[in-house]
Amino acid sequence: EAGVAQSPRYKIIEKRQSVAFWCNPISGHATLYWYQQILGQGPKLLIQFQNNGVVDDSQLPKDRFSAERLKGVDSTLKIQPAKLEDSAVYLCASSFLIAGGRSGNEQFFGPGTRLTVL
Amino acid sequence: AQSVTQLGSHVSVSEGALVLLRCNYSSSVPPYLFWYVQYPNQGLQLLLKYTSAATLVKGINGFEAEFKKSETSFHLTKPSAHMSDAAEYFCAVSVQGAQKLVFGQGTRLTINP
Description:
The complex is a heterodimer of chains A (118) and B (113).
Chain A: E1 5-7, E2 10-13, E3 19-24, E4 31-37, E5 44-50, E6 53-56, E7 65-68, E8 75-79, E9 88-95, E10 108-109, E11 113-117
Parallel strand pairs in A: 2-11
Antiparallel strand pairs in A: 1-3, 3-8, 4-5, 4-9, 5-6, 7-8, 9-10, 9-11
Chain B: E1 3-7, E2 10-14, E3 19-26, E4 31-38, E5 44-50, E6 56-58, E7 64-68, E8 73-78, E9 87-95, E10 98-103, E11 107-112
Parallel strand pairs in B: 2-11
Antiparallel strand pairs in B: 1-3, 3-8, 4-5, 4-9, 6-7, 7-8, 9-10, 9-11
């Protein structure tokens, strides 16, 4: 079974530039998550999709960050314009939603995209 | 709201020694608890999870954790450390109806030969 795919693996940009990250979840996984992991910290949820709908985007800086999952499969996270403090690893994860929405489902993580903003 | 505190940002043990990584949680409702491991330049991999069944949970690579409600703890242990255990370990909590994970700050485990 193929895992969660992310690209690119590394990206270096200047501040105020734009950047986009792509994620393809495990086939059949209805729920997709984007996390931001700043160096020395645990991952922080940015946005959660169930199929192509947003479940939770309470911690997404909506003035500069946007995300979409148009067909309920792969997803794109965009930052426009980037700031120095956006330097982090952006992790995508997916999980299989069991009927009834029980929690405790394992989230499977991709390798992440390491963003450096200069 | 749920939160997790990992005691000790860096733990160092000798090869063959006991590994103990501490995690305390805060939740107003029964939690689900997870331990993930992250190797350099890789994503997170699930070690084990507690989902209200047995309080002693066994995971991969010889790790186990015990859920103690009275202490609000979910410490991770391994009887004998191996060099390959060197990595970053994250404790996380979620609650039913909210699938998102809330992670602790992480503990970097170093194994000395």
